[in-house]
Amino acid sequence: LRALGRIYAASGQHHELVLMHEEELKALEAANADPTALATVLFRIGGLYERDLDDAAQAIHAYERVIERMPGHLPALQALGRLYAQTRRFRDLVAVNAQEIEASTDARTRIALLSRNAELLSEELHDPHGAVECHKQVLELDPENAISIQALGRAYHARGMWNELYALYQSEVEHARAATARGDAYFRMGQ
User: Fold this and answer.
1) CA-CA-CA-CA torsion for 125, 131, 133, 137, nearest 10 degrees?
2) Can you give the pLDDT at residue 169?
3) Could you say which DSSP state residue 144 is in?
4) How far apart are CA 24 and CA 17, in angstroms?
5) Angstrom distance (rounded) from CA 28 to CA 34
6) Minimal CA–CA distance to 98: which of 70, 117, 119?
7) Sign of torsion over alpha carbons 38, 41, 44, 48
8) N or C: which terminus of the chain has fewer CB atoms within 10 Å of its end residue's CB?
9) Is-contact 139 152, C-beta < 8 A?
10) Over the Cα atoms of the chain, what is R_g?
11) CA nearest 119: which of 147, 142, 146?
């Protein structure tokens, strides 16, 4: 089967290669193979659809099947994120980013994904409450994150949420390293 796969790949017979992998998948399912083996084959199928066949819908379907079998499968989540952005499926993109946030242990990655979700929720999905929640989560990870501080400040000011705005500025003062940043926060608190 592997030799046939190499022949199909070398000769550019990508549809046949997908069909071969689908047959491999059926055999694995019939043998009650472990989810990792199934996910590996499905991920290959998704890659063929995405890279070689330029079929975003089928690639998405394959990657979603990976996630069904192995929630938190980082390469599939990243591929879905890429394809959801490309196809402008923003609600799905926010959801897959949330799954990637849960799967990630790297604070910088989590901050970047939360910031991206805040932007999508605010700009594309017109969900300011969801965007505020994402910015709050960013500040839990990075209390000095200027973008989230500014976004929350604007949101609280626009809604007349003065207590929340004051608390935000107090937190900014507590976490500011530079005296000028503390001074700026104090100035905003006085306005």
Assistant:
1) 120
2) 84
3) T
4) 10
5) 8
6) 117
7) negative
8) C
9) yes
10) 23
11) 147
Q: Which two tokens stand for residue 19?
A: 């069909």
Which two tokens mark 1? Answer: 């089967």
Q: Residues 64-117: pLDDT tens digits?
A: 999 999 999 999 999 999 999 999 999 999 999 999 999 999 999 999 999 999
List Cβ neighbours of 2 (8 Å cut-off, separation of 6 or more). none
Token look-up 């242990």 returns 105
**What rounded mean pLDDT belongs to the chain?**
91
Q: Which residue has the tokens 């952005």?
A: 85
Closest CA to 117 of 100, 105, 104: 100
d(CA 184, CA 191): 11
Half-sphere CA count of 91, side-chain side, radius 13 A:
3
Give CA separation, 19 vs 45, 61, 62, in Å: 9, 15, 13
Q: How high is the pLDDT of residue 180?
A: 56
**Within 13 Å of residue 84, how many CA atoms lie on the same side as its CB?**
20
